[in-house]
Write a structure and sequence with these properties.
Largest sheet: 3 strands, antiparallel
Number of helices: 2
CATH class of the largest domain: Mainly Alpha
Helix content: 40-55%
Structural class: alpha+beta
Strand order of the largest sheet: 3-4-5
Shape: rod-shaped
Distance between the termini: 23 Å
């Protein structure tokens, strides 16, 4: 397949151009940098570097497509991790903003603050309210905003990779059709 417009030659004289993406059957010419090809019933010589072999082209497209799928998969995994972290932060923020009616029972009571005073064992229960502090919810919300921006960028990258993957699949299908059509045309009388 021609990877660009290719000048065609007959007996070292320029005889026209072969359009890009034209599929032709070719074989090496006497000079290893040239190919002898047949196009529209005539034999031509053309520079070999302007052509890609079917197997190489399709392999490169398949490899590229696999790379796009792998990048997409990695981004999805990163997105899922960020989403999980955001859920944890949201739960923490809600917990911090909830009324503090929960109490923790501590048995035995803590030691006295005055070191000179001896600790006496008692059977008293000490109730301690648990409070995460007034700013913890705000900190969680700021982190959630940062995660939201990161996730938005990842969503854009994922959408771009979806389009790129579809474009590569379309190109690959188009190339396979061109090669198939060429082979079928060569078999007809």
């Amino acid at each position: 397949m021609a990877s660009r417009d290719v000048p065609l030659y007959v007996a070292h004289e320029r005889a026209g151009n072969l359009p890009v993406r034209t599929v032709v059957q070719a074989e090496p010419a006497a000079d290893t940098n040239w190919l002898r090809l047949r196009h529209q019933g005539r034999d031509y010589d053309a520079e070999a570097s302007a052509f890609r072999y079917e197997r190489d082209l399709l392999k490169d497209l398949a490899d590229y497509q696999a790379g796009v799928r792998e990048r997409y998969s990695n981004l999805v995994q990163t997105y899922d991790q960020l989403l999980e972290r955001r859920k944890q932060l949201e739960a923490e923020a809600i917990r911090c903003e909830a009324p503090q009616d929960r109490m923790t029972v501590v048995i035995p009571p803590p030691a006295p603050r005055n070191l000179g005073q001896a600790a006496t064992p008692t059977s008293d229960l000490v109730l301690v309210t648990r409070s995460p502090g007034p700013g913890r919810a705000a900190i969680c919300r700021r982190e959630m905003s940062k995660l939201d921006r990161q996730m938005e960028k990842l969503e854009q990258q994922l959408a771009g990779l979806e389009l790129e993957g579809q474009r590569v699949a379309d190109i690959r299908n188009s190339m396979e059709r061109k090669f198939s059509d060429f082979r079928l045309a060569g078999q007809s009388p």
